[in-house]
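Q: Focus on the shape:
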Amino acid sequence: MALEAAAELIELDSVAEVPGAVAGWLRDNGIDELVCAGDEALQSMDWSGAGDIRREQRVARSGDLASLTTSFAGIAETGTLMLYSRAESPTTLNFLPDNHLVVLRRSQIVGVYEEAWKQLRGATGGRMPRTVNLITGPSRSADIEQKLQMGAHGPRTLVILLAND
């Protein structure tokens, strides 16, 4: 379903392959800088093989070309990603850069929305986060003259890095 929503999908055997896959995608798209979430999962990866890609952990700013975050869940029903805000993963990373790369483990995929919400309530001790973002494909709008425009309210490209482990 994510592919039908115009997301790109990169399948990986392991999350250990994320740095190489991210570096390859960025190089293929002429980007040499990446803004990252501070998740332990991303920070503990071995980025030594990522070449000359500059990574910076911070909130996204206007003009950033690419961000990398993790996803809390993937919802198979619609191909939607569920992300939530926290200190190490500010919401700006989901909306400001033109390209949003998201790591999703296959084990995080649930069938329907209700399952994702139930897991989120359990993971947060029943306290809902300040912001929950449900992302289905890149940003798009047809508000102006009924003409589809990609990136109208967020990233023009959504890349899901789907890891089997």
The chain has one domain: 8-163. The first strand starts at residue 8 and ends at 12. Residues 8-163 form a domain with the Rossmann fold fold (CATH 3.40.50.10420).
